[in-house]
Amino acid sequence: MLILIGYLVVLLSVFGSYVALGGHMGALYQPFEFLLIGGAALGAYISSNSGKSVALMLKAIPQVFKRSPYTDKAVYMELMALLYVLLNKARRDGLMTIENDIEEPENSAIFAEYPRILRDPILMVFITDYLRLMISGNMSPYEIETLMDQEIEAHQHEQNIPSRALAVVADALPAFGIVAAVLGVIKALASVDKPPAILADLISKAMVGTFLGILLAYGFISPLSSAMERRTVVSTKILECIKVTLLASMNGYPPQLAIEFGRKVLYSSVRPSFGELENHVRQAKAPAKKVA
Fold first, then answer.
1. CB within 8 A of 40, min separation 6: which ones?
2. Residues 5-16: tens digit of each pLDDT
3. What is the mean pLDDT of residues 204-224?
4. In which band, very low, low, confident or very high, does the pLDDT at 285 lie, cut at 50, 70 and 90?
5. pLDDT band at 188 (very low <50, low <70, confident <90, very high)
6. Residues 256, 61: Cα–Cα separation, whole Å
7. Least crowded by CB within 10 Å, which of 36, 48, 95, 195?
8. What's the CA gap between 176 and 169, in Å, rounded?
9. How distant, in Å, are the alpha carbons of 38, 157, 225 from that of 166?
10. How high is the mean pLDDT of the chain?
């Protein structure tokens, strides 16, 4: 939502100031220059990316206009309560007692208590996969940590593909604007025998290309790229929270302390206080006993 507000501010600031200074909007209406710049940028993007990259972009663009699910403190409270219940049950009754829960989480009474986490496929795969490895007992905490780091790195790289591609497009747009301007100047010079008024009109139209290229780059595409990158950072941080919590449990810390490790890696804007988390976890103990 903020990105739409930002776009509106850009449009009002640029075109409002132009009109206030006595400019006429009709002079900026050059659809073929827009087609030239936009088409060249699109063609360059397609030629420099794979089909998978294009698919990721088509998926990422609608998401960036929505609020990230990982900016709500309640999601982290729910996540840490879930991890506490699972780790507490495993510590009290043995790791094998949570095997059915992680093999069929959609049928698990524990996971049913935390619908936000259950609906998130990325979090569910990460949690269940590493709990499954913990149950196997064949890997050390160091080995699992290395594997987690590699998976988180792969996740971050894949999620950043659209933002990096857009950043390249944003860098190229001013140059395509110059291309449009140069072509316009060439057209104007070919009409040098025309009256000064006509020649000035042609030159002014040519300059619109440079204007459009810079405006699209720094007013729209670059902010969109930055917004995508921020979403990736947030989605990576929640995986790091799960990683730290599970590793703390593997290293022998009790569940209450393990989730405290996870709490500490969160950003301050979504990190619950010690008291908030303790009270929330205390409420989660009753369902855990009932399931056990």
1. 176, 179
2. 999 999 999 999
3. 91
4. low
5. confident
6. 39
7. 195
8. 10
9. 13, 14, 5
10. 89
67: nearest Cα among 227, 219, 222, 225: 227
Q: What is the pTM of this model?
A: 0.83
CB 202 within 8 A of CB 181: no
Give the type of residue at 173: L
| Count, residues in the chain | 292
- CB within 8 Å of 111: residues ≥ 6 apart: 82, 101, 105, 117, 118
Closest by Cα among 125, 3, 124 to 62? 3
What's CA 159's distance to the chain center, in Å?
7
Tokens of 127: 């949690």
Q: Specify burial of residue 14 (Cβ count, 10 A radius: 0-12, 13-18, 19+).
A: middle
For residues 134 and 250, the answer to whether their CB atoms sit within 8 Å is: yes
Phi and psi, residue 270, nearest 5°: -120, 0
Backbone angles phi and psi of 265, in degrees to 5: -85, -5
**CA angle 99–102–103, rounded 5-degree value:** 80
Closest CA to 110 of 79, 133, 151: 79
